[in-house]
Amino acid sequence: MNSEQPPGKRGAPVGRRVFLGTLGLGALGVYAAPTLQRGTEAFLGSASQLDPSGLTGLLPNGGGFRYYSVTSSVPRKDATNYRLTVGGLVERPKTYTLDDLRALPQTRMVKDVQCVTGWRVPETPFEGVRLSRLLDAAGVRADAGAVRFTCFDGAYSESLTLDQARRSDILVALRMQDEDIGHTHGGPVRLYVAPMYFYKSAKWLSGITVTRDVQPGYWEDLGYDVDAWVGRSNGRDDAPTS
Ligand SMILES: Nc1nc2c(c(=O)[nH]1)N[C@H]1C(S)=C(S)[C@@H](COP(=O)(O)O)O[C@H]1N2
Ligand SMILES: [Mo]
After folding, report:
1. What is the Å distance from ligand 2's center to 106 Cα?
2. Domain that holds residue 31
3. 56 and 6 in a common domain
4. Strand order in 84-88's β-sheet?
């Protein structure tokens, strides 16, 4: 079974995702769910974690987030030991603590979360610091063209073009659903890329590195689109949903 394989119902089962499904690589997406989710994170929905097809997420009572991690365990970080480094092709590299990030102006957005496999969580509030603010503070150099994101799970990565990264609807998020982001959802800090499928929203964010070129992220190395606009990527050409 393959969690990142699209449910057949969505009607867009072509190309790369069929390729993924054939290899079974998408099963990595829920590799850790049975151990990490048990007990402590009931709000995620016990039904959905047992449904690798992704279909329960489309049902009224099965809606909600799925837990995803490509690693089997992730260290916990909090205000005492969390650090976010901003570096690469910048004039002023900087390391932020959680309190540093909390002290910056916060932006709140309420949009639908959309996983590429089909599950969706409507009108989910996210709150945090605009990525563009951190980039401006760092002073992006003229030869830069992209931004790479790394995570303290030690495995996941993501990337955006610099133009994408400067959009106002991309946050270094500290809060989700009007609560501090918990460990399971990638807390204390995750990326939130509102206009793109949720795999762009890297959990457990620890590094922002300005680079010359886009380096495809974890799932993108496995075939997903780097430009992951909701409704306009990964074999879908329906109208944008947000
Ligand atoms: N570090 C990390 N970030 C990640 C992932 C992951 O496995 N590791 N999975 C991505 C995918 S495919 C999805 S759908 C969302 C899931 O977020 P959630 O666990 O908060 O529902 O996180 C994204 N960010
Ligand atoms: Mo996903």
Report:
1. 26
2. 2-68
3. yes
4. 94-96, 84-88, 205-211, 146-151, 157-161
- Which CATH number fits the domain that encloses residue 206? 3.90.420.10
My answer on whether 96 and 215 are in the same domain is yes
Question: 28 with 111, same domain?
Answer: no
Whether 147 is in a domain gets the answer yes
Atom of ligand 1 nearest to the CA of 66: 21
Which residue's alpha carbon is at the smallest distance from atom 2 of ligand 1? 203
Task: Please give the Cα distance from 168 to 128 (Å, whole number).
Answer: 11
Give per-residue pLDDT as tens, 131-177: 999 999 999 999 999 999 999 999 999 999 999 999 999 999 999 99
User: What band does 117 get if pLDDT is binned at 50, 70 and 90?
Assistant: confident
Query: What pLDDT shows up at residue 159?
Result: 97
- Same domain, residue pair 104 and 139: yes
User: Ligand 1 center to residue 201 CA distance, Å?
Assistant: 7
Ligand 1 neighbour 66 (Cβ under 6 A): yes
Which pTM was predicted? Answer: 0.79
42/34 Cα distance (integer angstroms): 12
Domain count, the chain: 2
Window from 33-42, 134-143, 219-228 with minimum mean pLDDT: 33-42
Q: Is the pLDDT of residue 230 over 90?
A: yes
Q: How many CA atoms lie within 13 A of 27 on its CB side?
A: 6
Q: Examine the domain organization and report whether 149 and 91 are in the same domain.
A: yes
